[in-house]
UniProtKB/TrEMBL annotation:
Organism listed in the record: Nostoc flagelliforme CCNUN1
NCBIfam families attached to this UniProt entry: transpos_IS4_1
Protein name: IS4 transposase
GO molecular function: DNA binding; transposase activity
Keywords: Plasmid
Pfam families associated with the record: DDE_Tnp_1
Domain Transposase IS4-like: 24-221
PANTHER family with a match to the protein in the record: TRANSPOSASE INSG FOR INSERTION SEQUENCE ELEMENT IS4-RELATED
Upper classification of the organism: Bacteria, Bacillati, Cyanobacteriota, Cyanophyceae, Nostocales
GO BP annotations listed: DNA transposition
Length: 236
């Protein structure tokens, strides 16, 4: 099944596909979720359970899934399953193997890290990700569209391996949600403000929610009430 997936799971969007490209780059997104797997001793040992209140016990072991989706078609072109205890950020890095220079990868703030930025650049891809509120950036140069040039410093582990800080562009904007202003900050390697103005990038970033729609299609519309993962021998 793995080999079959590798053969058929390819991007299919064309230039005629709505919302599939930005400035000639194919829009991709990473997201993740968890699924129940059958209650067996092997699944319990390999995949594990989420934490639960004292005196209670989860009904089923959980498998964590992260996937890389083509935004314009909702096609999953790469995926990785792991035990529940492995976090999405760590697993998401594995999916960057399917990225190339023709792609623009979007991610939510939970996946932001120096390792993510560095890995995308190593694959020659491009990125547009949301940044957590507690992450600070130095303003190196302000662009006419209000965005600014900055850099992202390596984490301790990456620094020990010789990684250097990476120049990036930061876009800040405010959206009113339920009557309350909410600030968004995006990080990208796209420095051409003529081809990729801040307003366009801010607007296009919200296409990332198409990954959530893919998840909805998978878990709600394609699920018949049975286990999506029936594993007698856990995936290694």
């Amino acid at each position: 099944m793995t080999r079959l997936f590798e053969l058929v799971a390819k991007p299919l969007a064309t230039v005629l596909t709505p919302d599939a490209f930005l400035g000639g780059l194919r829009i991709m997104a990473i997201d993740g979720t968890v699924f129940d797997v059958p209650e067996t001793p092997t699944n319990a040992r390999v995949f594990g359970y989420p934490g639960s209140p004292k005196g209670t016990y989860p009904a089923f072991p959980k498998v964590r899934l992260v996937f890389l989706v083509e935004v314009g078609t909702h096609l999953i072109i790469d995926a990785f399953c792991s035990p529940y205890r492995m976090g999405e950020r760590r697993n998401a890095l594995k999916l960057l193997r399917s990225l190339d220079s023709s792609m623009l990868l979007m991610w939510d703030r939970g996946l932001h890290s120096f390792k993510m930025v560095h890995a995308v650049i190593k694959q020659l891809g491009h990125f547009l990700g949301r940044v957590p509120a507690n992450v600070k950036f130095e303003v190196v140069k302000t662009f006419p569209d209000g965005s600014y040039k900055s850099w992202i410093a390596p984490d301790g582990e990456s620094k020990k391996k010789g990684a250097k800080r990476i120049p990036v562009r930061i876009i800040e904007y405010v959206i009113e949600e339920n009557g309350t202003p909410k600030t968004y900050r995006l990080i990208t390697d796209l420095m051409d403000i003529t081809k990729f103005p801040a307003l366009i990038l801010a607007k296009e970033y919200h296409q990332r929610w198409e990954a959530e729609n893919t998840l909805d299609e998978l878990k709600i519309h394609l699920w018949d009430g049975k286990f999506l993962f029936v594993l007698k021998i856990p995936v290694k």
